[in-house]
Amino acid sequence: MELTPRQALIVDIVKKNEPITSEQIAEKLNLTRAALRPDLSILTMSGILDARPRVGYFFSGKPARNIISEKINNIKVDEIKAVPVVIKEGSSVYDAIVTLFLEDVGTLFVVQEDGSLVGLVSRKDLLKIAIGNADIHKIPVGVIMTRMPNLITVTPEESAYDAAQKIVDHQVDALPVVKIEQEGDKIKYRVVGKVTKTTITKLFVELGKA
Ligand code: ADP
């Protein structure tokens, strides 16, 4: 919340003199109590100042708190992640399209035989290859996928806000949720979920309900 110069001055006075009554604040500012009232209401309603009856105003020590921002920063990807649909690197583009319809998803995560994430294919990736003259029964998804290390991923420990920010910044529909594992000198990514625009919309609806 952006404070006006007078509101900032009031906060400063309260910080230095707490507890302080509205009369005393008004006096310091050469104002009437009535003139001060709107600013004091804004500062108490936004949580910057605490008002205790018959004692006075205190500085709450907290910046203007925003409940939504607190919530979405505290909710972890692990709590909101959805079930990912994966497909093997060698599967055909045709199989990928069928899987997209059967599973009713927009993005498929492509994994190696050992289950580690190597890429992903989106609706548009599949459409692009399907409208050409290519034989989609013969082309493996591994050839057309967006591959590691170019994937934007999230970990279960990141916040819902971090995930939404990545979706917006990178203009993608889905992020694989990965656990990073070290095997010898190789780093492997195990897909444990996904966060998509739908996941974020569902969270938005939940927060709205509450
Ligand atoms: P759509 O096919 O509906 O446009 P996206 O906007 O998610 O779906 O995908 C746009 C492009 O970005 C595609 O080429 C896709 O492979 C790629 N892409 C999608 N998700 C990611 C991601 N998490 N990381 C990197 N690239 C991605």
TrEMBL record:
PROSITE patterns: CBS. It holds the Pfam family HTH_11. Keywords: CBS domain. This is CBS domain-containing protein. Residues 79-136, 145-210 form the CBS domain. It comes from Biomaibacter acetigenes. It comes from the Bacteria. The keyword DNA repair does not apply.
